[in-house]
């Protein structure tokens, strides 16, 4: 579908993408983690897109199997949610994924 | 107002009360913390109460100054949100508040 193509293009064209909701503390946590690491992700606030928000959330579920927010992509690769991202950070792997994605 | 009286009665009559939303991970965290501590809070899922949910959330803001979920009460006393509750747990104070409230 056109929406699915647009989501795929978004995550392919932007090194770090976070699908988020403005009121959600897990989404805030992941956005502020990236900021602390000096990274400015492309943030898409699904609750600010009217009817398209839930549609994008459905597309993301089709593409990634994940229906929740936050939904994080680095270098076009699906990373997961808040817990997954924080786990990678504690393992030291997040930082290398980020430098790979932001340096090409 | 009648709704405000009903909220005040709920937190007075129940040792542990959590105003929550079913989809919210911060709400889930605080509910599961209480479960791990062997406590069964009275949980009120604001997203399952139709139009009354936002009304109760407004009443809680009037009573506690807090407009977010989760909103936690122990022994009729306003504790705060997820972060506040977890902080008290790490300080060892949560457990004493809980035993006081559940033992009278
Ligand atoms: N373990 C996941 C939890 C994700 C989750 O449950 N997200 C909630 C919000 S905190 C959600 O998307 N709920 C359904 C919704 O908002 O549509 C993570 O760390 O990201
Ligand atoms: N630091 C607070 C954060 C509370 C918060 O921002 N809650 C969000 C959901 S995670 C909220 O209530 N947003 C507005 C809403 O859902 O009505 C806590 O630990 O509880
Ligand atoms: S909505 Fe509360 S943590 Fe996401």
UniProtKB/TrEMBL annotation, chains A, B:
Domain Glutaredoxin: residue ranges: 16-79
Record flagged with keyword Ion transport: no
GO molecular function: glutathione disulfide oxidoreductase activity
Cellular component GO terms, alphabetical: cytoplasm
Record keywords, A-Z: Redox-active center
Keyword match Isomerase: no
Gene Ontology terms: biological process: cellular response to oxidative stress
Family: Belongs to the glutaredoxin family. CPYC subfamily.
Protein name: Glutaredoxin domain-containing protein
Source species: Kalanchoe fedtschenkoi
């Amino acid at each position: 579908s056109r929406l699915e193509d647009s989501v795929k293009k978004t995550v392919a064209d932007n090194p770090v993408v976070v699908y988020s909701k403005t009121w959600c503390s897990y989404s805030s946590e992941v956005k502020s983690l990236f900021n602390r690491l000096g990274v400015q992700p492309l943030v898409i606030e699904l609750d600010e897109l009217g009817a398209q928000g839930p549609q994008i959330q459905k597309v993301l579920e089709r593409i990634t199997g994940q229906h929740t927010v936050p939904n994080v992509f680095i270098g076009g690769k699906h990373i997961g949610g808040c817990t997954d991202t924080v786990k990678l950070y504690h393992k030291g792997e997040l930082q290398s994924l980020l430098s790979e994605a932001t340096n090409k």
